[in-house]
Amino acid sequence: MRADPVTLDGDAAVAAADDGTRNDRPDFLDTAVPPRGLPLAVLLLSLPLFGQIFHYMKDLPSLWALSKAFPILSLPLAFTLLVWNRAPITRQVVITFAWLVLAPSFVATVYFDQDFFTGVAAQVKLLPMLYFFSFLALLLYLRPTLRELATGYIVCGLLTYGALIILWALVPQSWYSGNYAFGSSPLFSFDNRGNRIRMPMYFGMITLFYGYRRFLRSRQVVWLLAAALGFVLTLFVVKTRAMMVGVAGMLVITTWGSASAVQRLVLLVLAPIGLAGLFSFGYLSTLFQTDATSGFDVRWTTVTKALDFLGTDWIRWLFGVGTISPINSDNLFAYFDHMFFLADITWLGILFEFGIIGTILILLYQIRGLFFYRRLEYLVDSDFLASLRDYILYTLLISGLYPPTLTPGEIAVILAIFAYTYQRLQTDGPA
């Protein structure tokens, strides 16, 4: 039988702090000690970059360029890990990153007639996977408590929602662009969904999941209202269908996990009705449309051209065919005579570029976080860590609409936190 995990959130944490047992607990888990200024300040400054918040925000060119360069700029931190014991998950991240960069770069020399080093440049999108090492090294030197980590994330999440409210209230209509290049993602856009603010929601989603978990634990309405506000802002301001699919799915899954047998029976009846109602609402109903305005015809043509190119050659299916590097004078548009975006066809695009082997490695990269959380769950019961696990599951839920290769740094940072937590628990010992 396992020992009861240390509970860090909710009423139990307050009771433990008040009954005189606080000093018997390791500092890493002590929720009664206020966050320290220096670790929290460093986290608040670095988390937006590690979380790839500015990675696709070309409207902010300086921050966008810094975000693109940050995997390399922060890499020296990773070399300091040599003085520490090898962290869990390290081997898998190394193997996954090396294969995903080298294998498609090599096969692209055959199928797209480009040299190997040009092919490597096509995989710069994978560089944020290295955040596992650089962020883990930063954590090992800062040695933040779990409360400081949670505070950093929640503050970033609250700032995300605060920025959404301010921008929604103050930005003039003239800033919303209705004409932009296909495949670009301006921060302010106008389309058949109305005005949209394409705010990166990494911290916002985790904050929403955290608030809902706190409500389920404490039954305090304030946490439910906080989660509901995040849901409403995402629904009516961000207006990204993939996000709403993921959020709705995670709320059902989280509720199911904390429900009694009777409540689960009720949920089996109400959840399908609620989801059907949600996705028949406004722009969400277009998720299932296949007319020209939905872009389905463009994606379907991409699917057929990708499948035709893979053909019946098992080597192409197993190892993939790579892609044409953006620094190449040619591009996929010209090669296929079509607006050919691998991201549009999500998992098929991943299989096209990385093959079955690479696709399995990417999937296992996500799943490892889910299984490793179960390992942590035996030692510590934290709503914050659970909300990080929720985000990994969320990325899997939306992966059919938004491929995980676009923002691999998000999962890398979560895996680094899991590895750091495990190492601190092994060093300090459970309470």
Instruction: Sketch the major β-sheet.
Output: 2 strands, parallel
- Tell me the strand percentage band: under 5%
Helix content: 55-70%
The overall pLDDT, averaged over residues, is: 87
Low-pLDDT ranges: 10-26
Name the strands of the widest sheet in spatial order: 1-4
Radius of gyration: 22 Å
Number of self-contained structural domains = 1
Explain how this protein is built.
The chain is an all-alpha fold. The chain has one domain (6-428). The chain is built from 18 helices and 4 strands. It has helices at 11-18, 37-50, 61-73, 75-79, 90-111, 116-121, 131-142, 146-170, 202-218, 221-238, 241-258, 261-278, 296-310, 314-319, 332-336, 346-377, 383-397, 408-428; strands at residues 6-7, 188-191, 194-197, 380-381. The protein has a two-stranded parallel ribbon with strand order 1-4. It has a two-stranded antiparallel ribbon with strand order 2-3. α7 (131-142) packs parallel to α18 (408-428) and α11 (241-258) runs antiparallel to α12 (261-278). The longest helix has 32 residues, at 346-377. It is globular, with a radius of gyration of 22 Å.
Layout: helices, strands, pairs:
Elements: E1 6-7, H1 11-18, H2 37-50, H3 61-73, H4 75-79, H5 90-111, H6 116-121, H7 131-142, H8 146-170, E2 188-191, E3 194-197, H9 202-218, H10 221-238, H11 241-258, H12 261-278, H13 296-310, H14 314-319, H15 332-336, H16 346-377, E4 380-381, H17 383-397, H18 408-428
Parallel strand pairs: 1-4
Antiparallel strand pairs: 2-3
Helix pairs in contact: 2-8, 5-16, 7-18, 8-9, 8-10, 9-10, 9-11, 9-17, 11-12, 11-17, 16-17, 16-18
